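call fold(seq) -> C-alpha cells
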Amino acid sequence: MKKLLSIVSLLIFLWGEGFAQTSFVKQINTTSAVGSLKVFATNDQGWVIYAKENAHLTKFNLCGESVWSRVLDIPNATASLSDIISTQDNGFAILSREQMGDSHGTVITKLNSNGEISWSKSYFNSEYEYFPYTLSEDNNGNLIY
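ret:
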C-alpha cells in the first residue's frame, strides 16, 4: 500500500509540475511618470517596458532577466511618442508624431527583434484633424494607424 501511495503521490506531483506557470516579480526604478510607461508581452513569451517620455525600451525574457535595453533615437519624431506594438516578426513598431511649424505628421518606426531601428517613415496629410494614438498590425503584417 505504501508503494502504491508513493507512486500515486509522484504522479500527482509530476502532473502538477506540467501545468506550473513561470512567474517573476521585478522592481524597476524609473524617473518616468507611470502614465508614460507601457508594459506588454511579446510574441516570443518575453516582456517589454517602453518609457514613452524618453523612448527607452527594455526587453526581458520569460524569467524576468533583461535581454537588452535601448534609448531609441527615432528620426523625425519631435513630439509625442504615442504607441508601440509587438509585430508578427518578433520586432516592434512605434507610432509617434512629427511637427513642422504648425503642421503635424505621423511617424512610424519599425524595430527588429533586438530593438534596432529597421526603418522610420513620416506621413503628412494636411487634412489630419487629430493625431492617431493607436497602432495595430493586420494578419498580413501591414501596420495600421
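The first helix runs from residue 2 to 18.
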